[in-house]
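Session log. Operator J.P. requested a structure for one protein chain; no other inputs attached. Running the standard single-chain path with C-alpha cell output.
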Amino acid sequence: MKKHLLSLITLVVITVGCNKESNEPVSILIGNWELVETFVSWPPLYPDNPELDSDYKVTYRFDTDGTFTKTETSDGFSTLPVQALGRYEIGNSTQSDFLLEVVLTFDSNPELAANCDFGMENLYISNEKLLVNTSWSACDGPGFIFRKI
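Structure written below.
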C-alpha cells in the first residue's frame, strides 16, 4: 500500500511540475503591453533614436486562448482607436538576447502589422522581460519596445 501511495504522490508531483513549466512562457506574455520606446535599425547611419510622439499609443493584449488585440490610438491623422485582432504562437528564441519569440498572425486590419511582410509580426521577449518588435528592421524601419502594464 505504501509503495502505491508513494508512486501516486510521485506521479502527481511530476505532473504538476510539468504543467507549471509548459505554462511559463505563456504567463510571461499574457496581459497588456504598452509602447515605451522606439529605436532605429541602422545605428551607424542614424545615431539618434526617433522621439516617441506623445499622441501615438500602441498596445497589445495577449489572452490565454492564443489570441491578441493590437490597438493604435493615433496615427497623426485620426484620434480614434484602431484595432487588429489575431492569433499568436510562442517559441524559444534562437537569439541569445531574447528568451522567447512570439509570431503574430493578423486576422483583421493586417495593415497594422509593423513588418515588411503584410499581416504578420515577429516579437521577442527580452531577457529584461520587455517585448521587442524588430520586424521592420529588415526594411530599414524603426524598432519598438513595449513594457507590460
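Operator note: Strands lie at 31-39, 58-62, 67-72, 82-92, 98-106, 120-126, 131-133, 143-148.
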